[in-house]
Every structure is written in C-alpha cells, then in structure tokens.
C-alpha cells in the first residue's frame, strides 16, 4: 500500500473516464512492504491478541505433535542373533510330511538336521513320525564318532514328537540341552 502518492490519473471526457499516465508514476505498487513479525503472527494465529503472542514467544514451549512429526526412527546397530561358529554346538531339527506319493521304501515323512556352526544338513526319511527318538540316537552316535566335537544343543519347534518323556530323558541323560 502506498500512501500520499498518486499512482494513476483519470480524466473525465464526454462521460467517459480516461486513464492518463501520471508523470511521477511509481512501480512500487507491485512491491509489498514488509509486515512486522508481531503482526504476521497475529494474522497467522487467527487474530490472537498481541499480549498472548508475546507471552508465547517468552515461554519455552515444546509442541508434542510437532516433535512426533519430526521424529525419525532410531538407528539400531545390526543386532543379528548370535550364531555359533563351533560345529555341533547347536543343531536345528525339523520334521515334515506326509509325502505323497511315498518313496519306494514306504517312507512318508522326513526329518532335517541343520548344524548351525557349519550349515551342514542331514536329511533322514522316516516311515512314521514316532521314529524321531531312534533317529536322534543314531544321528548322535554317528556324528560324534565322525568328528571331534560333542553334540551340545538341539533346537526344535516344540512339536509333540520332540516333547516326549523318552526324548527328554535321553537328552538329559547324555547332556544334550533342548531348546
């Protein structure tokens, strides 16, 4: 807004208004004068009174919504589960089946053993799911004879076959931990 200056000049001629350039024409009508900050905040805050705006500027105010909106996910170090490097320290066992059609020997289930330290895998075919204890005994004896390491821990998915009293008694009797 320009005060006390003429920008445009109109003359009246035969019932019409004619726009005539004014000699001291200024292009400042295109440039806006800066508004004081207090007035800007007064307008932005829906015409809040100036005393309340000054009080808000003095207070150390933290907006929780703004903080949450600006928050970023914390960076976490790569926290992979601790994988053992020692052979036979932890062996994972899982069972699957029934397989259709059955094998030529009539086997319908399988049991997979995975050594966590070496990632070596053993696959055994089973006639029924109840063979898991005899299969574990055979696996335990053959693996410890072939290597200088002892089987320390077996990790299962807590299926019924792995929760039997006989399997628990066998493992606790020879010092194998069950997870």
From TrEMBL:
Organism: Aphanomyces stellatus
Protein name: Integrase catalytic domain-containing protein
Domain Integrase catalytic span(s) in chain numbering: 83-179
Signal peptide residues on this chain, from the entry's feature table: none
Keywords linked to the UniProt accession: DNA integration, DNA recombination, DNA-directed DNA polymerase, Endonuclease, Hydrolase, Magnesium, Metal-binding, Nuclease, Nucleotidyltransferase, RNA-directed DNA polymerase, Transferase
GO biological process: DNA integration; DNA recombination
Xref: Gene3D superfamilies: Ribonuclease H-like superfamily/Ribonuclease H
Matches recorded under SUPFAM superfamilies: Ribonuclease H-like
Gene Ontology terms for molecular function: DNA-directed DNA polymerase activity; endonuclease activity; hydrolase activity; metal ion binding; nucleic acid binding; RNA-directed DNA polymerase activity
């Amino acid at each position: 807004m320009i005060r006390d200056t003429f920008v445009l000049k109109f003359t009246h001629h035969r019932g019409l208004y004619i726009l005539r350039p004014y000699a001291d024409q200024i292009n400042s009508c295109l440039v806006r004068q800066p508004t004081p900050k207090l007035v800007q905040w007064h307008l932005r805050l829906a015409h809040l009174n100036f005393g309340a705006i000054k009080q808000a500027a003095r207070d150390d105010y933290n907006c929780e919504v703004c903080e949450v909106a600006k928050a970023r996910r914390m960076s976490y170090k790569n926290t992979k589960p601790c994988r053992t490097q020692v052979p036979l320290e932890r062996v994972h066992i899982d069972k699957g089946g029934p397989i259709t059609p059955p094998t030529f020997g009539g086997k319908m289930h399988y049991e997979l053993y995975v050594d966590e330290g070496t990632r070596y895998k053993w696959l055994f075919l089973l006639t029924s799911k109840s063979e898991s204890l005899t299969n574990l005994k055979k696996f335990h004896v053959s693996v410890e004879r072939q290597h200088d390491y002892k089987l320390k821990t077996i990790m299962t998915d807590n299926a019924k076959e792995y929760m039997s009293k006989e399997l628990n008694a066998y493992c606790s009797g020879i010092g194998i931990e069950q997870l």
